[in-house]
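Narrative of accomplishments. A recurring question from our advisory board has been how the design workflow behaves on a single, concrete structure rather than in aggregate. To address it, we present the structure tokens for one chain from the evaluation set, followed by the sequence designed for it. No filtering or post-editing was applied between the two.
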């Protein structure tokens, strides 16, 4: 019975992968609003799946096709080596830091937390670039090659991607472990063991470690999900020819489906098998499966709702009170200098971006070829280095990166804020519906389906869906975000 359930959950995950894989092709050919076109493409793709000859890899704007597993297997192993190295390194450091920190004085523990909080606040992209700058600087200054900063001509780079990718699981798991260990150390059995003369280090290793391990395993799903999503960016920065490059070069439904399937299968099997093992052992699983299940009684719920509405004292309701409460909460939180500095930086960046856009009408400086003062000697071609003519340099088209960053800051920050609010609201609403509207069996199915999402990197899915908008092909952009699809005219000489 359990094997049948496991197979059912796995097949549901595969169905979701197939449905996602078709979307980029539909967006690029039929438009974002063509619902019937989506189902037609989905049906066409499903008819190709049973035919092994259709399992091919084809790059963008190319008619040459290769057997997909012959192309994808080596990059897949390469990407998994980087991911596995980052997870092993991150989890090892997190456990060492978490258990060692409990033996440190309180002041030093606070300092360690602040350092890790600082590392967590820095985007992976920035850390990757800083590592590359450090390696180049040391090589130019001292002639010492610390590590490869990027892959080139078939050369594989491991150290820098693994170190950069390991920061996220290290910090995230360390915080989780620290909270769980602190909670575990307050339990009665720890005091009993101390009274028996057992040293704190022995208690941590022999007892606390075993008790926090099951819950840590459950938290690791979210950490793995976030790490997989970050790997897409890290591989692009370090020019890793892994799964990321294959998806970037080919957005066919078959490539996307096989890539996501290879990522989904091993993690799904690992976590589902371990979950079954925890359920079989009530001692190991007691921390995971003791939550009370609520059944939904529609008539009782509606009656309570009507009763509550009827007994509201409408005259005492003050519509402005929630806004006053929110304002007071914000003011109280701003007394914390960390929140105050972060909020002021956030508001300041948006204000500067808006002011610049309004006063300059979104003007961006652009210089393609720069000459010396004599007007004849070539000084620089794109991409221009930082300094002159632009402080942060330019991209390959000669566009001033500082202007582009300032203009785009408001969109990035505002959308980040909206996404954070929506995630909190949707998560809270989903949790309420899950707890009070679903029965025990329905909750179990929902948990398994949601767990499946933890093994699909969102960055890969987002790239596959947005590439037709953001990447200009031979015939222009595939479609725009207008209600009706528009296609940019092809350049001269292109049919």
């Amino acid at each position: 019975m359990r094997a049948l359930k496991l197979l059912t959950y796995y097949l549901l995950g595969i169905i979701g992968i197939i449905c996602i894989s078709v979307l980029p092709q539909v967006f690029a050919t039929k438009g974002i609003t063509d619902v019937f076109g989506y189902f037609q493409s989905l049906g066409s793709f499903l008819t190709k799946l049973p035919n092994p000859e259709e399992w091919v890899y084809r790059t963008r704007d190319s008619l040459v096709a290769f057997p997909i597993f012959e192309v994808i297997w080596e990059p897949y192993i390469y990407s998994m080596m980087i991911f596995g190295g980052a997870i092993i390194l991150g989890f090892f450091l997190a456990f060492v830091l978490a258990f060692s920190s409990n033996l440190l004085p309180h002041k030093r523990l606070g300092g360690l937390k602040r350092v890790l909080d600082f590392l967590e606040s820095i985007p992976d992209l920035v850390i990757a670039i800083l590592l590359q700058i450090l390696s180049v600087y040391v090589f130019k200054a001292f002639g010492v090659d610390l590590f490869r900063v990027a892959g080139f001509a078939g050369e594989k780079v491991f150290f820098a991607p693994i170190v950069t990718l390991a920061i996220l699981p290290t910090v995230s798991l360390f915080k989780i472990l620290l909270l769980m260990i602190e909670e575990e150390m307050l339990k009665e059995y720890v005091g009993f063991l101390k009274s028996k003369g057992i040293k704190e280090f022995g208690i941590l290793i022999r007892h606390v470690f075993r008790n926090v391990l099951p819950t840590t395993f459950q938290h690791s799903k979210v950490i793995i999900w976030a790490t997989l999503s970050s790997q897409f960016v890290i591989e692009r920065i370090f020019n890793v020819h892994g799964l990321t490059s294959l998806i970037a070069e080919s957005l066919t439904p078959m490539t996307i489906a096989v890539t996501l399937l290879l990522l989904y299968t091993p993690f799904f099997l690992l976590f589902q098998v371990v979950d079954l093992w925890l359920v079989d052992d009530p001692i190991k699983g007691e921390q995971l499966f003791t939550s009370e299940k609520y059944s939904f009684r529609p008539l009782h719920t509606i009656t309570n709702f009507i009763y509550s509405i009827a007994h509201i004292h409408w005259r005492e309701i003050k519509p402005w009170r929630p806004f006053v409460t929110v304002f007071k909460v914000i003011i109280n939180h701003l007394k914390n200098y960390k929140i105050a500095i972060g909020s002021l930086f956030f508001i300041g960046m948006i204000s500067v971006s808006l002011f610049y856009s309004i006063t300059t009408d979104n003007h961006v400086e652009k210089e393609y070829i720069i000459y010396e003062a004599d007007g004849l000697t070539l000084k620089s071609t794109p991409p221009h280095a930082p300094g002159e003519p632009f402080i942060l340099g330019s991209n390959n088209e000669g566009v001033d990166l500082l202007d582009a960053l300032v203009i785009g800051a408001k969109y990035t920050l505002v959308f980040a804020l909206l996404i954070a609010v929506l995630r909190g609201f949707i998560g809270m609403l989903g949790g309420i519906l899950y707890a009070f509207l679903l029965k025990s069996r329905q909750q179990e199915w929902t948990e398994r389906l949601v767990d499946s999402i933890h093994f699909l990197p969102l960055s890969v899915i987002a790239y596959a869906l947005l590439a037709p908008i953001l990447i200009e092909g031979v015939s222009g952009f595939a479609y725009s975000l207008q209600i009706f699809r528009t296609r940019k005219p092809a350049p001269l000489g292109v049919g």
